[in-house]
Amino acid sequence: MRTSILRFIQPVTIAAVFAAAARQYRYAFVTDFHQIPHFQGQVVVDVDDPTFSIEEAALLGRPNVAACVVTDERALLRYEALGVTKPIRVIPQPVSLDVFDADKAARIRAGREQQGIVFGHVAAWLRLRGDSRHGNALYDIDHLLDLWTDVRLRVPGSRLWLMGAPSPRVRRRCAQLDDVVLLGRLCPDDLLARLVNVDIALYARTAGGGMQRMKIAEYIAMGIPTVAYEHDETRILQTTRTGILVSSARQFVDAVTSLADDEAKRREMSAAGHALAPQFASEGIARRYEREVFDQYLS
């Protein structure tokens, strides 16, 4: 019942909000292509999670769309193939490095001094098979926990930090594992303070979405060596030398074990990530939006 009501209310609310905004504003910056028809002025559309559907392409081609922003060159090419002719700018996902709290990170570091290698995984939601929203590769952790069964045996004394809102099934399963820590959904400063204390990130998504993901940007910018399955969205880890890409579960566990035993390699990858951090910093990304998008298309 709640879902049905929300599906009815949300379009009505969006239309009312944009109708009111149109009386005061000439321009809009939107992050959902469904909002485009509700604003009559010029619109810049940020598409960080594209669908590449016919509906999306049609809305991006509306006369009031001034420009689009995507996170990856591949998205630009796919939109062009769909017939989108509006200007498209490629700007990567931002990381809120300005909220990083070094003191908080140091306190977390002091609290884990007696622990072994700390592995980390971040997602907005943590789901298992049987959950109502299971089936989204961004949130499912069935395969990650299966991998952990082998990793925990080959890297004794290690811990797995899971950051994200867990389902009841996830809570019940992880309650049986004394080396898995559920940290819940964290605010940006808490998340970055935790991430900088992770030794190796596990990106165990077997299905790739094709575009750069926020978590990959966070892992790189925070200097966290990452093991991931090879997809378009993870290839940046290889090109920047900040991670290891694999093609099977066996290779995944082998790569994790090898990296856990090689502190020098981890330091090398971490340094490469820190060197790239300014490219992902929110302040720099905001300046690029202003210079490359707003000043050019909404002035």
Which spans of ≥5 residues are poorly predicted at pLDDT below 50? 1-9
Please write the string of helix (H) and strand (E) elements: HEEHEHEHEHEHEHEHEHEHHH
Radius of gyration: 21 Å
**What would you say the CATH architecture of the largest domain is?**
3-Layer(aba) Sandwich
**Top-tier CATH class of the largest domain:** Alpha Beta
Separation of termini? 45 Å
Q: What composes the largest sheet?
A: 6 strands, parallel
Counting DSSP E segments of at least 2 residues, the number of strands comes to 10
> What is the domain total for the residues?
2
The order of strands across the largest sheet is 7-6-5-8-9-10
Give the overall form. elongated
Assign the CATH superfamily of the largest domain. Glycogen Phosphorylase B
Written account of the structure:
The protein has helices at 2-22, 54-60, 73-81, 102-111, 142-154, 168-174, 188-195, 214-221, 235-239, 249-260, 263-280, 282-297, and strands at residues 27-30, 42-47, 65-70, 88-90, 118-126, 159-166, 180-184, 200-203, 226-229, 243-246. It is an alpha/beta fold and 299 residues long. The strands form 2 sheets. A 6-stranded parallel sheet has the order 7-6-5-8-9-10, with helices on both faces. The chain has a 4-stranded parallel sheet with strand order 1-2-3-4. β2 (42-47), α2 (54-60) and β3 (65-70) form a beta-alpha-beta unit. The chain is elongated and about 60 Å long.
